[in-house]
Design brief:
elongated; about 0% strand; 9 helices; mainly alpha
């Protein structure tokens, strides 16, 4: 079997349907050693940034021919986009704590870990910077976040069934509020997180910050 054959290994399946799996990925045609290619791409992004990332460098690190990479991904933006969607470094499990508050705390805690613990923090921040300069990569980033939200949908479906959320709740809006708070505090403002940041943020998003009225 050579690099141009369709990958029949687990990484081209759709594991996201299993509880605790990483964000779901589209079933793709990919060369053999696709996971090594995606991991090498994200590692080089972390080490060298988007400007220093090259298809040739990925080929050398993954031990494949660069012509194989160009056959599947015509640019480094396309290759990085595929790595973001199908790589392993940015994944985290889907929680099932039995409550919406607990599930959202687990999800936000995973986002905080992703943004503060290497190597995922370096990869995520480098990818964000690259996406602001590359419309092609930005399109792939949207696919990445859409796939992640598709996995997280189960958290909200369960919450509606338990009567914790209104049926017309927009899950994307809630996750934008939660993850956005982490991105803004950690990446843009570069401030330390208080010990209760996750719990307080989830509570504020779900219940608001207004003073409770006493009867």
């Amino acid at each position: 079997m050579d690099d141009e054959q369709r990958d029949s290994s687990p990484e081209s399946a759709e594991p996201g349907a299993q509880q605790g799996a990483r964000p779901p990925r589209k079933r793709i045609n990919a060369p053999r050693k696709s996971q090594e290619i995606f991991d090498a791409t994200l590692d080089l992004l972390r080490e060298k940034g988007y400007e220093g990332l090259t298809v040739e460098g990925v080929a050398d690190r993954a031990g494949v021919n660069k012509t194989t990479l160009y056959r599947w991904w015509p640019s480094k933006g396309a290759l990085l986009g595929a790595a973001l969607v199908n790589g392993t470094q940015l994944g985290f499990p889907l929680p099932d704590t039995g409550s919406l508050q607990g599930d959202l705390e687990a999800l936000l805690g995973s986002v905080v870990t992703l943004l503060t613990v290497p190597p995922s923090s370096d990869i995520a921040i480098a990818a964000l910077g690259a996406a602001t300069h590359s419309p092609e990569l930005a399109s792939h980033a949207r696919t990445f976040f859409a796939g992640r939200l598709a996995q997280e949908q189960l958290v909200f479906t369960r919450a509606v069934a338990r009567g914790e959320l209104a049926p017309d709740t927009d899950p994307a809006h809630l996750m934008d509020l939660l993850a956005g708070a982490a991105w803004l505090r950690i990446v843009f403002r570069q401030l330390p997180l208080e010990a209760d940041f996750v719990t307080r943020t989830v509570r504020t998003v779900l219940h608001g910050a207004a003073a409770r009225q006493t009867p």
